[in-house]
Amino acid sequence: SVLSETLSWTKDVGGDSPQFYAPTRSSTSLSQSKNNTLSSYTTGSTNFVIEKYYQNPQVLRHGCSVTVLFVDPEFGEGSMWSLESVADYIHPKETTCFLLQTSICQYAGQSKDVDTQYRIKAEVILKRSKPLFRNMIHSGNVRMTVLNYTKYNLKSCMNFFSPSYLLENYRYWGPDEFHKTDSDLILLTQSDAVLCHDLNVDQWRDVAWVGAPWKASTGKQFWHFCSGMPKAWKQFHGRSRPVPPFPTEEEICSNTV
Predict the structure, then answer these.
(1) Measured between alpha carbons, how far is 97 from 93 in angstroms, rounded to an integer?
(2) 103-119: per-residue pLDDT in tens?
(3) What is the DSSP string of 91-159?
(4) Tens digit of pLDDT for each residue in 50-105?
(5) Angle between the 77-89 and 131-138 helix axes, to the nearest 10 degrees?
(6) Theoretical Cys-Cys bridge with 43: which of 13, 23, 48, 130, CB 3.0 to 4.6 Å?
(7) What's the CA gap between 72 and 195, in Å, rounded?
(8) Exposed, middle or buried by CB within 10 Å (0-12, 13-18, 19+), for 229?
(9) Is 195 left (phi over 0), alpha (psi -120 to 50) or beta?
């Protein structure tokens, strides 16, 4: 079965040397956009930070219409503009959820308490956030978790390379990382990508995967998509034995696998 539907309709400008392309509109004009208002979620605290669970009552009642997944150990300026572009262009906004998966090891010198480290990181992201994404935070549509990098064979707590190890691990797409409130429709974006125009996720629910074109070449860096699928299939199943046979095109299209 398809464990996760993924949208990736973004302008990727990273290449081999990642650079970030910021939206041409200023953050001031973004914050004044009439189409980007969300009903304010009152937390009762002026020191609101990102929690481990969504807080928006509408999301808690009906679930997320889409879960925007952002995996980043640092959440620097590029990541903030990427998230801002999604907050600007995605629809429906009221039930769009953001799942931030990150690291807190960089704050171990400030506190040995894990909860304190979490709060420091949440406050850093809130302070760095741009107006529209900050509105999503205050509306309770954003949650943050600490990613166990060793569990998914990522390089280190401050280097999540390669994210493919994460996404191709079937254990990742389970209750340890995703809650019942999260959507089966996932939008994965990164610090070198932005949404460039309106994206209504309801128009893409019948599509299993949308992504950037694959280069028709082979080698260590790029392997042809079709010939590489069996390899990805084995990586996805990890150490499970025996590995189920790679599905045929007929089985894939019949939605029975």
Answers:
(1) 8
(2) 999 999 999 999 999 99
(3) E--TTEEEEEEE--GGGTTT-S-HHHHHHHHHHHHHHH--HHHHHHHHTT-EEEEE--TTTTT-SBTTB
(4) 999 999 999 999 999 999 999 999 999 999 999 999 999 999 999 999 999 999 99
(5) 70
(6) 48
(7) 18
(8) middle
(9) beta
Using DSSP's 3-state secondary structure scheme, residue 186 falls into strand
Q: How many residues does the chain have?
A: 257
**Amino acid (one-letter) located at 39:** S
| Residue for token pair 């600007």 | 88
Residues 6+ apart with CB under 8 A from 144: 50, 51, 52, 99, 100, 101, 102, 118, 121, 122, 125
Task: Say what the pLDDT of residue 216 is.
Answer: 54
Beta strands 90-91 and 66-71, pairing class: unpaired
Strands 142-146 and 96-102: parallel
Tokens of 210: 């949308």
